[in-house]
Amino acid sequence: MSDAVLTLLKFALLAALYLFFAWVMFAAITQIRAVPAAAGGAPGRPKPQSAKGRVRGQITVLEPPELAGSVMRIGDELTIGRAAACTLTLDDTYASQQHASIVRRDRQHIAEDLGSTNGTFVNRERIIGPVVLHPGDRVQIGSTVLEFS
Q1: What single string gives the DSSP state of each residue in 53-118?
Q2: Which residues in the chain land under pLDDT 70?
Q3: Is this model's pTM higher than 0.90 or not?
């Protein structure tokens, strides 16, 4: 090969390398900006409540130990998964980006799997469609266990 071709290949490789680094930086910056700032705590972490403030339509984290005892009200809809856009963000490799949801319809709370890979379990049974939750039911997503009340 001639020197001119080798020089041209060197510049092409260098340009590709710079484009790759620019793409990585762009992706990192957009991910950082996409994380919503949660009021009063880290994103995805439920705010603890006292036992006096318990109301129907909330979940209590039983596992993992670092989140155990945290309580989160469900409201009209609660989405659970690894994505930052979820109401409850899990740091669990067995959870999908948007794993499951709990919605309130007709004075009932309904749990539904959102097409996750590893499934959603209510009282240790894998759910296939929407399931009505009753106080004391346990919802398991990966290694995270939540109790509905």
Answers
A1: G--SSEEEEEESTTTTT-EEE-TTEEEEESSTTSSEE---TTS-TT-EEEEEETTEEEEEE-S-SS
A2: 31-56
A3: no
